[in-house]
Fold:
Amino acid sequence: MALGRTFAVALVGLDGYLVEVEADISQSLPAFILLGLPDASLNEARDRIKSAAKNAGIPLSRRKITVNLVPASLPKKGSGFDLSILMSALQAAGDIRSSGRTVFIAELGLDGRLRPVRGVLPAVMAAVRGGCPDVVVAAGNAAEARLVPGAMVSSFDTLAEVLLAFGADPGRLLLQEAVGMPQAGRETAADRPAPPEPDMADVVGQHAARTALEIAAAGGHHLVMVGPPGAGKTMLAERLPGILPDLPDHQAMEVTAIHSLSSTTEHLTELIRRPPFESPHHTATGPAIVGGGPGVPRPGAASRAHRGVLFLDEAPEFDRTVLDALRQPLESGSLVIHRASGTASYPARFQLVMAANPCPCGMSGGKGLECVCSPNQRRRYFGRLSRPLVDRIDLQLTLQRISMADIAAGDAAEPSSRIAGRVGAARAAQRERLARWGHDVNAEVGAALLKKELRPPRKATGDLDRAMELQVLTGRGYSRVLRVAWTMADLQGLGSPDRDCVGTALSFRQQLAAA
Structure:
């Protein structure tokens, strides 16, 4: 009995699992049988593999070929198994030598070209963790695969080149026909110059909002802004990533892995160092925000914003169930999506920024003389943001229209670079203080720490304690005020929050209630 064996990787969410690809050739009528829970795209691999092998010069055996993907109970999906299946079949036929524990990740074209696939970064990470550092990928995925520390990556343009590297007879290979053909879909992010990040110097007025944005960036806090059209809510939100620091290596690897799995049009060539910014339209569905889709759920906007900003403009226009679906990841920093076909887990530690008008017409701010909405319409409109969701927002800000004086003083606005310097210093202070508890920013600190080791002096929390006694705050709100107070202390270079820090943090918490 002839038997070939190679390795591939199956992705379930961001978790990768080594898959042993076994091929058996038996004396029977010609057939190609694929076992091991393949999905529709993987079942189609049989025809792609046959044509690619023929056009590379070494056609598959005309006997019965049975391919088993082990473990058989693990769902497999996608075209990234093409190359590993073909290599195992050719090993079983004796056309190439054994590949040992080499992992093959590539799609095959009918003409014998190797096509890049998405999700290569988490797949290669799983291969290295599983003790298989030798990986073969398409040339279009080479730069992305080499981002993984410890990976020994070989990349090829055509199947014929792969077969030659693994001992195929050069006289049989159709190298000239395969080499040199133009590759389709080889666009990379590096091919396009990155657009400049919006600068805070463009924002006119709104000094309280600028302060709140700096606090949010320094401590990783969530923010909601309510104000009339034209007040600058969207401008401010779009400038938040520009004052955030670059991601450290481990966070950059997480973010890049998510975008590797999500991207269908480009192939990553370097780690994503800048915090991502996701701004879905208010018509987005639940699966588009939290993740989902057919088969194993794919990451949504919340996971693509991991370690960055998720901005929901016109927040009350979103479906309420979509907004409330964010309550769990706001607390845990992750999303576990259950579907009949499987369960996937994705990180989702993002900063939520929401912008909203105060009423359907948007004019009820200030004196509200131009507002045409009834009091009941106003309550219903803003009531679409549930109280449990708003209670999870650290900074709640009411914006007013800018004045002529603000426009006249526009040239004096502070640029993002200067604000980013203060944010970076505050983040460094937080890392030093929170390292022994495994946290990076104040927004991640749990209530237990805030009640014990990180509790400010009693004289600093007097106003906050009274607000709690009057039931102005929930227990969650009390902790969130303390987190913001710690961030303000870090921005000011203080050892712990004083009464002014706590009072200012409390005022940011109560602005919506007073509006």
Notes: The radius of gyration is 28 Å. Confidence is low (pLDDT under 50) at residues 176-186. The first strand starts at residue 2 and ends at 12.
